[in-house]
Amino acid sequence: MSTTAENIQQQISENPILIYMKGTPQLPQCGFSAQTVQALMACGERFAFVNVLDNPDIRAELPKIANWPTFPQLWVNGELVGGCDIVVEMYQNGELEPLVKEAAAKQQDDA
Q1: Would the pTM count as exceeding 0.90?
Q2: SS3 sequence of 55-93
Q3: For a pLDDT cut of 90, what percent of the chain falls above it?
Q4: Helices 96-110, 31-42: inter-axial angle, 10-degree rounding
Q5: What's the chain's average pLDDT?
Q6: What range(s) does the Glutaredoxin domain occupy (predicted)?
Q7: Distance of CA 8 to the CA centre of its chain
Q8: How far apart are CA 14 and CA 5, in angstroms?
C-alpha cells in the first residue's frame, strides 16, 4: 500500500496542471479556491484537481511536502506555482496563461 506522500508525488508527476483545492471546479467550497479555478479556467486548458475536503490525508500531508500551508495550491509541471493570490496576480499580469498553455502542449506532445 502506498503512503499519502507517494500518492501526492504520483498525482503531481502524472498531471502537468493540477490544483489541490477545497471542493471541485464546478462547486468550489471556498472563495480562494473559486478565484483560483476561475483564473485557471480562463486560460482555456484542461486541468486535474484534488478535493482536499474529500481527502483529509492529503489535506494534512501536502502542506508539509509543499512547504506551503494553505489551499488552494496550483502545481504546473511538477512545480508549486502558489496559492490564490499568486495565481490571480499571474493571471492578471499575463503570466499564467502561457505557463498553463505550455504545460498543456507538453502533455499533448507526450501523449
Answers
A1: yes
A2: CHHHHHHHHHHHCCCCCCEEEECCEEEECHHHHHHHHHC
A3: 93
A4: 70
A5: 95
A6: 17-81
A7: 12
A8: 14
